[in-house]
Amino acid sequence: MRKKLRFQTEEDLLDEPLINLTPLIDVVFVVLIAFMLIAPVLEIDSVDLAPSGGAQKKESQTSPISILVHADNSLWFQGKKVTLLELEKALKLEKKRSPKAIPQLIHDQKAQFGTYQTLKNMLETIGFEQMDVILKPSK
Prior knowledge:
Layout: H1 10-15, H2 22-38, H3 54-61, E1 66-69, E2 75-77, E3 80-82, H4 84-97, E4 104-108, H5 113-126, E5 132-136
């Protein structure tokens, strides 16, 4: 039993089914156009950085609301170690006392970002519109 060797001819190549890529390209273009239309509308949360200078430093040091986050993520409010619930109660009280005060967050470089985010969300929920962020470098 011998097998015959058969070479592919042009007719064999033309008989193979072709894949139509037109629907795929159409879908990609529709998604691209959707992103192009939606991107300008997206609201991105940003933090404005204060210009460096002596006047800015004096203003931030006189803030009546000071929150300190150590490298171990412990929270300190006005020089006392507090829990998150105690901090929330104290911040609500401070908001009632001085509604225009801007809280000052002194955040250690080694502390977790989640702690910053939790404090930021808490301040927004309480009703503060601004927050000064001071990064404390690790030693």
